[in-house]
Amino acid sequence: MLATMCLALGLAGGMGSAALVLFPPLAVRAARLVPNGEGHASWDVFVFTAAVLLAGAAGEEILFRGYGFQMLLGAWGPYTTVFTVAAIFGALHSMNPNSTWLGVINTTGFGVVFGYAFLRSGDLWLPIGLHFGWNFTLPLFGVNLSGLTMKLTGHQMEWNVGTVWSGGEYGPEGGVLTTIVIVVLALYVRKAPIRTQQSEVLPCAPGSLLSS
């Protein structure tokens, strides 16, 4: 039950934060949705893409916030661990197509939020939900995800503002709107009704029965 709640809260936060980046430009006509010229993806492609995005988000969270991360919590403490792993997470995304310095900074910011989400919940379901919710929502609006193009709905966002706002070919993750929303997402994780799960296995995990 706790895992389901964490996943649901994560999905709501990830999808909501993506909407906060994309809805305002559409509302003020700084961007518009236009046909992409290729039509929408078939249902099997849509489901397959969603499954790939879920597997990718879960895999990255297991890699960056999984066992190694949890062991480092005991050795380094939460601040050093969260920020160091987040910096590595951001730096690795610099190899993505059309990556920019702001994109790397924003991705590092997401890494900090995902690490904090683990600290708040005590397991990976919350960061997985946040990660997947964000990754799944961007392609629905026809914008690039970390430099990758996924045409699912038959439409794409056409921006009327500079790349500082839109993120350019890297996608919204390379823009200042995402920088602002990352702060909002961190506040959401802080205020969300999350109950930290206890662990008898990992003494370094938040809420562990073996921790002091």
Summary tags:
212 residues; mainly alpha; two-stranded antiparallel sheet; 62% helix; disordered C terminus
Can you give a write-up of this model?
With 212 residues, the chain is mainly alpha-helical. The protein has one domain. Helices cover 62% and strands 8% of the residues. It has a two-stranded antiparallel sheet. Helix 2 runs antiparallel to helix 6. The radius of gyration is 17 Å and the shape is globular. The C terminus is likely disordered.
Structural class: mainly alpha
What topology, given as strand order, has the largest sheet?
1-2
Termini gap: 26 Å
Q: So what's the overall shape?
A: globular
- Please indicate the percent range of residues in DSSP E strands (runs of 2 or more): 5-15%
How many separate domains make up the residues? 1
Topology:
Elements: H1 2-27, E1 31-40, H2 43-65, H3 67-76, H4 78-92, H5 101-121, H6 125-140, E2 153-159, H7 163-166, H8 176-191
Antiparallel strand pairs: 1-2
Short description:
The protein is mostly helical. Helix content is 62%, strand content 8%.
